[in-house]
Amino acid sequence: MIEGRTIAFVAVVAVGGTSVLISGGSAARRPATWNPRAAAAYLDQRQGWWESWPRAARDHGTVCVSCHTAVPYALVRPELRSTLHENDTTSVERKLVGDVVTRVRAWHEVKPFYGDTTASGRTKAVESRGSEAVLNALILASRDQRAGVPSADAREAFANMFALQETTGDQAGGWPWMDFGLRPWESRTARYYGAALAAIAVGLEPRGYAQSADIQPNMARLRTYLRTQIDQSVWNRLLRRDDPNVFNRAMLLWASANLPDLISSEERRSIIAALWEVQERDGARRLASLGHSREPDGVSFDSTGDGYATGLIAYALEQAGTAPNESHLARALAWLAAHQDSATGMWRASSLNKKRDPGSNVGKFMSDAATAYAALALAHAQH
C-alpha cells in the first residue's frame, strides 16, 4: 500500500428535510476517504513510464503529449501539489512542460507526432499537427493561469493553434484531430472534444486573453462550432453511429466556465440536467453511458461506474459553479472518494475500443485519465 496523507471526504446531502452522510454506499458510521499522496505517486510513476517508453519518443528529444496520460497529468499535478503543500514541481512534470515549450518554439522545425509521406500518412500529419497545437496551448495556458500572468510561449502556442483552425466547410471553427478510431479522444467524433479543449485553453489564459481583438474572428467560429456540432447529424443518429452527446455536453459545460458568453443560462441548466440523467444510483457515471457507442467485437462495456466519467463530469460541474454539497455532485464525490484503489492510488476505467490487460502499462491508459480527473474533482472540492 502506498503510504501518505489520507483526507476524509464527507458529503452531507439534504434529503426530505434530513441530512444524510454519503460515503460511497457505506452508512454514516464511516466517511469515505481518499489519499491524494497515493494518487500523486501513481500519476508520477505513470508519466515517468510514458516519458521513458520508446514508442512515445519524438524528435528534438521530446515525448508525445498523450490525451490519456500526459494531458490529464499536466492539469492535475499542480492541484495535487497544492493539496499536499509541496514546494517543487516533479522532474516528470518539468520534462512534460519543457517538451511542450521546445516544440512550440521550434514549431516549424519539429516533425508532427504522427504521419509520413504516404497519402494516409499526410492526412495523419495534418490531424496530428492540429491536435498537438491545441494540447500545447492548453498545457501552457494552464500553467499561465496558475501563475496569473501570460507567457510569450503560451501566446506563441495560441498563434500556432489558431493558424490551424478550420475556416470553411462543415468543420469550420474546429481543428483537424487525430482519428485512430479510439474513443473518446482520438476518433471521428473527437473533433468536438478538441475544439472544447481549445476553448478551455483560451478561457484559462490570464489577463483577458479571450477578449483580445486579434482572435475575435477565431472565437466567433469556435463558438458557432461548439454550439452547432454538439450532436451528430440526424443521419448518423438514424444509423446508430457513435454519438458522444453527453460527453460533448460535459466538455462544453467545462469550456463555458471561463467563457460565460459561450452558452446561455438556459442552455447551461439543460446541460446540467442531461448530466444528472446519466448518473447511477450510487453516484457514479459510466463512460459508455455518455452517448451512443457501439461495442467492438470482443469488448463488453463496463456495467458499473468508472473514475474517468465520474471525475470528468464532477470536475466540469465544479468549474461551472456547482457547490460540492449539491446532492448529485456530493454523491459523485463520495463515490470517487470511496473507489480509489488503496494498493495503487489509482481509479479504474477501461477502454471502449479494445480488450486490454488492466495490469499492463498500455492497459492502464484509461485509468491514468480516470485517476487524474477523479483527483481533480476531489481536490477542487476541498479548496
Structure in words:
Helix content is 49%, strand content 4%. A hairpin with a 2-residue loop joins strand 2 (11-15) and strand 3 (18-22). Residues 12-29 have low confidence and may be disordered. Strands 1-4 form a two-stranded antiparallel sheet. The protein is mainly α. It contains 13 helices and four strands.
State the end-to-end CA separation. Answer: 26 Å
Number of helices: 13
> Mean pLDDT, rounded to whole units?
92
Overall shape: globular
Structure class = mainly alpha
Strand content: under 5%
* Number of DSSP E strands: 4
The Rg value, from CA coordinates, equals 20 Å
Report the sheet with the most strands, covering strand number, pairing sense and barrel closure: 2 strands, antiparallel
Indicate the percent of residues in helices.
40-55%
Strand order of the largest sheet: 1-4
**What are the low-pLDDT stretches, counting only 5+ consecutive residues below 50?**
12-29
**What is the element string, with H for helices and E for strands?**
EEEEHHHHHHHHHHHHH
